[in-house]
Design brief:
Layout lengths: L2 H10 L2 E6 L6 H4 L3 H12 L6 H11 L4 H12 L3 E6 L16 E2 L3 E8 L8 E2 L2 H15 L21 E5 L8 H15 L6 E6 L10 H10 L4 E6 L13 E5 L2 H7 L1
Helix pairs in contact: 3-4, 5-9
Length: 262
């Protein structure tokens, strides 16, 4: 199946399920970024692993933004379709793409929201502009190799238990899932309507970091829907299961680069 044929399948599909995996955290470029690798190690050693997703996003933004243009292209292709997007990537730029209303869910969280350190369940809130500015200022120092724990006390405290707030992602020690649950219910209801419909399952850049969220469920969805077509795009883990080999395609390419080529 060629790119032109995939675009034709997108056009003819009744519904499209798109998954955005870890490649949309820009890991391909970041693993070769000395400043990112050094800063990540400092955060891990100091107990600030919950900041790593934001650090990824900050360092990625230091380079040319290739994520937003690629996803905008996808949104334009999907614009007239009945679709849903699920992302295990935590980059807040994903939320800023002009998707249809209520057609995106990020079950691994996003750097745009914060929660109580202890996950007390009081409330998941948006990171304020002042907090984001403070965070970026601290990252400016970290980018040069300077780290001070005082610089990273940038989020408010929980108004219920008084504990510090941290970013609401799976990298928090006590991840508070209420940040995405309501939208997950919307997704599952949408998915129920895909049975026996001409469904295109488009898995983009999903590896084995969180395979139970997109990779394995998408395989199951495509297998049981007799009218489904499955497309997997991944830099390394592009192979299909034997059960899907006759109704799908694996593309050995970074998903961001693949979208850019459409």
């Amino acid at each position: 199946m060629k790119t032109e044929e995939i675009l034709t399948e997108m056009k003819n599909a009744d519904m499209i399920l798109a998954g955005l995996g870890e490649e949309f955290d820009d890991l391909l470029r970041l693993r070769n970024c000395t400043e990112f690798v050094r800063g990540k190690k400092l955060l891990q050693e100091s107990g600030y692993q919950w900041l790593i997703p934001a650090w990824q996003e900050y360092c990625s933004a230091k380079m040319e933004d290739n994520i937003s243009p690629a996803l905008k292209k996808l949104a334009n292709i999907l614009a007239d379709k009945n679709y849903f997007v699920i992302a295990t990537a935590t980059d807040s730029r994903i939320e800023k793409i002009p998707w249809k209303k209520d057609r995106l869910v990020m079950p691994c969280g996003t750097t745009a929201r914060k929660q109580c350190l202890n996950g007390c369940g009081h409330m998941v809130e948006s990171v304020t502009a002042d907090e984001a500015e403070h965070m970026n200022a601290a990252f400016e120092e970290l980018f040069t190799g300077h780290f001070s724990s005082d610089e990273f006390q940038m989020l408010t405290r929980c108004c219920q238990c008084g504990e510090p707030m941290v970013l609401n992602t799976v990298f928090a020690e006590q991840y508070d899932e209420q940040g995405y649950r309501k939208q997950w219910e919307v997704y599952t209801k949408w998915l129920q309507g895909s049975l026996n419909r001409r469904l295109l399952v488009l898995e983009l850049g999903e590896g084995m970091r969180f395979p139970t969220v997109i990779r394995w469920p998408f395989e199951k969805i495509a297998y049981f829907n007799k009218k489904a077509i499955f497309v997997r795009v991944n830099e390394a883990l592009y192979q299909l299961t034997e059960e899907l080999s006759e109704k799908g395609l694996g593309i050995s390419k970074n998903a961001i680069a693949w979208l850019e080529s459409l």
